[in-house]
Design brief:
Blueprint (H helix, E strand, L loop, with lengths): L6 H13 L1 H6 L17 E16 L4 E13 L7 H4 L3 E4 L1 H10 L7 E3 L7 E10 L3 E13 L12 E10 L6 E5 L5 E2 L8 E14 L5 E13 L1 H21 L6 H23 L10 H28 L3 H34 L1
Parallel strand pairs: 1-8, 1-9
Antiparallel strand pairs: 1-2, 2-6, 3-5, 4-7, 5-6, 7-11, 10-11
């Protein structure tokens, strides 16, 4: 159910639920033998379903994402039962604002919720409540909103798998209203419209949180995971990086050390550009990602190639060209390839396997 407007009405219902006992919280059922629900002895059970129909965006830097979602809730309250023959229909259709007035006039609890990780206004496309003659009630809503994603962790970027949540918590404490999961109406839609991420592994979770009343309230959440399309990063980042590594290694076959220095200097500028492009996609993190680690070491190695070439040039001009050629040959065959292999192996084991 939507966050009931005006807020004063919700707070009044919460107040009555906390202080009024069985009669104040629930009132008398229209049928003498019907059970009283929405009390500490018999909490109102509400089954909640969350279905995400569209993912409008995923903002990594702000750590949030936009959704178009359908929220459903089913519950049974004998106090809502009515005579279908007298009313002329087997159900009543109400807007949420009218329902809270109707529930207050009985009186009974009008279940209310808040979206825990909501960051923006919730634009409700459509919402209504259906009450059946036997006391069954159903809330239906379709809305769009922005949700916070504080569980993002980019250590394995771009091989990371991120956690997304849509969290709904009850306004009332758990001893008055309990949430269960409406599994058949929960999950991710078939056409989410998100091209950058592969989304799946959706599941419903239940937990307890401290609610608006300052007491323990029930919460249900739709949790799902997202991973990236690796082909994009393989073509746009890893393939150019591999080419640059091979080009840097190929410079060792040049006899003219000045040419080596010029080529390595150009590579250094390219690595700086790569670093700026990647950092523009992520927030300012306090830790290195897998890709950061690889790029920083490529930057360092390219800088060492320039220093090494300058040193060889000095040896050559000082009359020790044979020593320069021996050192150069050793670096070409062993130091450069094994050094890069060690860097990549360490990054994979630390960030992707152990991390």
């Amino acid at each position: 159910m939507q966050i009931i407007q005006p807020l004063v009405r919700v707070l009044l219902l919460v107040f009555l639920g906390l202080l009024g006992g069985q009669v104040s919280a629930q009132g008398l059922s229209p049928k003498g033998g019907a059970a009283t629900v929405g009390t500490r002895d018999a909490p109102l059970e509400v089954a909640v379903g969350i279905e995400i129909n569209q993912i409008s965006f995923v903002d990594q830097k702000s750590e949030n994402f936009g959704v178009v979602a359908t929220i459903r809730a089913n519950w049974h309250d004998p106090a809502l039962a009515f005579d279908a023959a007298e009313y002329g229909r087997k159900y009543r259709l109400m807007k949420p604002e009218a329902f809270v007035d109707y529930a207050g006039s009985i009186p009974t609890i009008a279940p209310a919720f808040i979206i825990q990780n909501q960051q923006s206004n919730r634009w409700i496309h459509q919402s209504f409540i259906v009450i059946h003659a036997n006391g069954d009630a159903r809330y239906l809503e379709k809305s769009s909103l922005t949700l916070q994603a504080p569980h993002f962790n980019f250590t394995r970027y771009p091989f990371d798998r991120q956690q997304f949540y849509f969290e709904i918590a009850s306004v009332f404490p758990s001893d008055l209203v309990r949430f269960t999961v409406l599994e058949e109406h929960s999950g991710l839609g078939d056409l989410l419209g998100e091209e950058e991420w592969i989304l799946g592994n959706d599941r419903m979770e239940t937990s307890k949180v401290i609610g608006l009343t300052g007491r323990e309230s029930d919460q249900v959440a739709l949790a799902f995971q997202g991973s990236r399309h690796i082909m994009y990063y393989a073509i746009r980042i890893f393939l150019p990086m591999l080419v640059l590594m091979v080009v840097s290694w190929a410079t060792f076959f040049l006899n003219e050390y000045r040419n080596r220095i010029e080529i390595s200097g150009a590579n250094l500028l390219i690595f700086v550009a790569f670093n700026w492009i990647i950092s523009d996609d992520l927030p300012k993190l306090g830790y290195l990602t897998f890709l950061d680690f690889i790029l920083q070491w490529m930057f360092v190695v390219t800088g060492l190639v320039i220093v090494f070439s300058v040193a060889l040039s000095r040896l050559k001009w000082s009359g020790r060209e044979d020593l320069a050629r021996k050192l150069d040959n050793y670096v070409i065959k062993w130091v450069y390839p094994l050094g890069y292999a060690s860097i990549i192996a360490f990054a994979v084991s630390t960030y992707l396997i152990i991390g």
